[in-house]
Write a structure and sequence with these properties.
By secondary structure, the chain is α+β, with helices and mostly antiparallel strands. The termini are far apart. Helix content is 49%, strand content 11%. The protein is built from 9 helices and 5 strands, in the order H-E-E-H-E-H-H-H-H-H-H-E-E-H. Strands 1-3-2-4-5 form a 5-stranded mixed β-sheet. Strand 2, helix 2 and strand 3 form a beta-alpha-beta unit. The longest helix has 19 residues.
Length: 218
C-alpha cells in the first residue's frame, strides 16, 4: 500500500497530468461534546488572493496532505499567480476540504487558519505545500508546523493558543459541509465563477479559460 501511494505521488509530480485526488469521503466523525470556540456561522468564505475587481474568480477546495494538491500548489499555482492574479485578471479563493483518509490534513488546515488569524494564511499555505515531506512520514507534525509558524514570523504564543483551543474547528466544518453540498468528492476541485471546472488543472488551461471569459465580457 505504501508503494502504491508513493507511485501515485511520482505520477502526479513527473507526469503533471491528473491533479485530482480520487478519494471518496466517508461518514463525518462524531461531533465533539464540548462547545467549539468559534461558531460555524462566522460568515467566513475562505481566504482570497487577487483583486476584488478581477473579472474571474476561481474557488479551490483543497487538502493540505493531498499529494496532488501539493503538486498543483508548487508547480501550477506560482505561474497562475504571476500570469493571472498579479495582472488583475483573476481572484483565487481557497476553501478547506480535508479528507478523512488523511490523518493530519485537518490539523494542517487548522495551522493555516491560525496563521490567517495573524494575517499570514498564504505564507503558511506555502510552507505546508512547499515542505510537503511532513505528509509522507506519518509522524505527528505539531513541532514541524510550529517551525513553519516561526519561519513566517508568527507570534508563537498566539499561534499555540489558537491551535490548542481548536479555535477554527467549526469554520473548517462549515467549509467541508459547503464542499459536500456542491458535490466535491476529491481534491483539488475547482469552481469557476461558481460552476464546477472539469478541465485540466494546469496553468495553461486556466489562462486559456480566463482569457476566453474575459474576451466574452469585453
Amino acid at each position: 500500500m505504501k508503494g502504491f501511494y508513493l507511485l501515485l505521488v511520482a505520477v502526479a509530480v513527473i507526469g503533471g497530468g491528473a491533479l485530482w485526488y480520487q478519494s471518496q469521503r466517508s461518514a463525518a466523525p462524531p461531533a465533539p461534546s464540548a462547545p467549539l470556540p468559534v461558531a460555524a456561522t462566522d460568515a467566513f468564505h475562505g481566504f482570497t488572493v487577487g483583486s476584488d475587481s478581477a473579472p474571474v474568480e476561481v474557488t479551490e477546495y483543497s487538502d493540505f496532505e493531498c499529494p496532488f494538491c501539493a503538486s498543483f500548489a508548487t508547480v501550477q499555482m506560482p505561474v497562475i499567480r504571476e500570469q493571472l492574479i498579479a495582472t488583475g485578471k483573476l481572484r483565487w479563493r481557497f476553501r478547506d476540504f480535508p479528507l478523512p483518509s488523511h490523518q493530519y490534513s485537518r490539523y494542517a488546515a487548522m495551522a493555516a487558519q491560525c496563521a490567517g488569524e495573524q494575517g499570514k494564511f498564504w505564507q503558511m499555505h506555502d510552507q505546508l505545500f512547499n515542505n510537503h515531506q511532513w505528509a509522507q512520514t506519518g509522524k505527528n507534525p505539531r513541532s514541524t508546523f510550529r517551525d513553519f509558524a516561526r519561519a513566517i514570523g508568527l507570534d508563537l504564543d498566539k499561534y499555540d493558543a489558537c491551535m490548542d483551543g481548536q479555535r477554527y474547528a467549526a469554520r473548517l466544518d462549515a467549509s467541508i459541509q459547503e464542499g459536500d453540498a456542491l458535490g466535491v468528492r476529491g481534491t483539488p476541485s475547482f469552481f469557476v465563477k461558481g460552476r464546477p471546472y472539469t478541465g485540466r488543472g494546469t496553468s495553461d488551461d486556466f489562462k486559456a479559460l480566463v482569457d476566453s471569459l474575459t474576451k466574452k465580457h469585453k
